[in-house]
Amino acid sequence: MLISVVIPLYNKKKSILRTVSCVLQQTYKDFEIILVDDGSTDGSLECLESITDPRLKRYRKKNTGVSDTRNKGMEWASGEVIAFLDGDDLWDPFYLERLHDMVASYPDCGLYMQDSMDIPAQEANQAKGTEEHKEIKKFNNWEHYFYYRNFKTSALAVNKAKAIELQGFDQSLTIGEDLDFWFRLILSYPVCFLDEIHVFILKYEEEYHSRFVPKDFSKHFSYKLVFKKDLYLNLKDNKDVHFIMNKIIFYALLGFDKDKNTEAVRILSKNLSFGRLNWKDKIKYILHQCTVHRTKCSIAKRVA
Q: Angle CA(68)–CA(74)–CA(160) in degrees, nearest 5?
């Protein structure tokens, strides 16, 4: 079975050679690498000139963003299964072998996921994956799925035909486009999960001084899920839709500036089912609300 590895590339000069090399070192050999350069300006593609392996197929296009780049990679891929790998992440040598085992066990799934580990980039050479083989699982109940919590793109693979049928990554989203795609797959097909670590998400020093800001995510992703509910009308009888939307609404509410987005907050709050949140999310939400109210009171006192 041919597996296509899609790598979107944009200004990853320092890491792309190491990333491509980790694919070429896989124990499973029946693969191709579809590397799509999204208009890099730092000479990233030239870093790979020393690689002559015919399984590496290079494409260059103008800069259109990661969603279009991944979609182009899927379009140009020849394999029936597509594994995604970001240009600064790593796989251990057994990732594709275990992915093949997953597909062989459950060929009807739309999404295949393995566990992953975040590590400092300087420790990449010491990264070591899971040695023992664990049970390959198939899920249809997504409340159980969310227990495994893994949405790291470099640890996910898709059935190409099913992914194309769902029209791939939504290019209208500038943030959260990957989650949107995974959720649409989750709502449409079974998912296969393997609780083994063969994927390493490299964290660079500058990333530790910044953090994900959910309000940016909210502007795009929650708008699509909440304000344009017709997205999932064909799945309106699927109880998993409500669970997933509730999860996204929760994160959106944590990010919105209540004073600047009063209408958005009103609609999101109306659609949030607090009782369906797990206890950790309930605590996060309560603490967030307390912080918001304390801040408003503090401002009011200063103004007075």
A: 135
CATH number of 3-209: 3.90.550.10
* Beta bridge pairs of residue 90: 200
Element (H, E) at 59: strand 56-61
d(CA 276, CA 44): 45
Q: CA nearest 52: which of 33, 72, 28? A: 33
In the chain, where are the structural domains located?
Answer: 3-209, 214-303
Residue 210 structure tokens: 């910044």
The segments of the chain whose pLDDT lies below 70 read: 141-150, 173-176, 205-245, 248, 251-252, 255-264, 267, 271, 292-304
Kindly report the pTM of this predicted structure. 0.76
pLDDT tens for 148-183 read 556 789 999 999 999 999 999 988 766 667 877 887
**Cα three-residue angle 151-220-157, rounded to 5 degrees:** 25
Q: What is the pLDDT of residue 144?
A: 54
d(CA 36, CA 31): 16
Contact 28, 3 (CB under 8 A): yes
Predicted local confidence at residue 303, as pLDDT: 37
What gap in Å lies between CA 235 and CA 188, rounded to an integer?
8
Helix (H) or strand (E) holding 81: strand 81-84
